[in-house]
Amino acid sequence: MSDDRSDRREYPERPIVGVGAVIVRDGRVLIVRRRYEPLAGRWSLPGGTLELGETLEAGVAREMQEETGLDVQVGPVIEVFDRILLDETRRVQYHFVLVDYLCWPIGGELRPGSDADDAIFVQPAELGPYDVTAKARAVIDRALELAREAPRPVR
Predict the structure, then answer these.
(1) Is residue 64 within a helix (H) or strand (E), and if so which, with residue range?
(2) Domain boundaries, the chain
(3) Which of 42, 8, 19 lies closest to 102 in space, CA to CA?
(4) How far apart, in Å, are the Cα atoms of 88 and each of 28, 34, 41, 135?
């Protein structure tokens, strides 16, 4: 990441586009323990920021490879939403516009990457002890609905 202020995640000058995924395998979903803020130390969905000139789908595939070691087939958009976090003075510390996709693993080997301390597949009914955010849980629930409505495409 450059030192250019427009490229900074913390105290950005404008919203940053992020991509994430609910990776589904055998009814389980992948969660990662975040290494960096925001949500450092918390279990969440894998994801990261879009690079200049990169499509959303290419970005999510790249981020999943970097963060989880998995190659994924990118499916439909689950949801688009804002994550705006304020500091103690009410100044915008983080502002992401996040686009989450339903994905399926097609290769690679599960391992936590540069932005994650751990990565595991979990049954959705067993997410409680991992204390994922309410928003992440809602995105997971919607992804599982989408997976039932529109099963994985054959390529």
Answers:
(1) helix 56-68
(2) 5-149
(3) 19
(4) 37, 22, 20, 22
Structure tokens that stand for 45 in this block: 């969905």
pLDDT in tens, 8-63: 889 999 999 999 999 999 999 999 999 887 778 999 999 999 999 999 999 999 99
Digit-coded pLDDT (tens) for 92-108: 999 999 999 999 999 99
CATH number for the region 5-149 comes to: 3.90.79.10
**pTM to 2 decimals?**
0.89
In Å, how far are 60, 69, 72, 119, 120 from 109, measured between CA atoms? 17, 5, 11, 11, 12
Q: What angle do CA 27, 31, 33 make, to 5 degrees?
A: 160
Q: Dig out the tokens for 114 from the structure.
A: 């540069």
Is 151 in contact with 144 (CB distance < 8 Å)? no
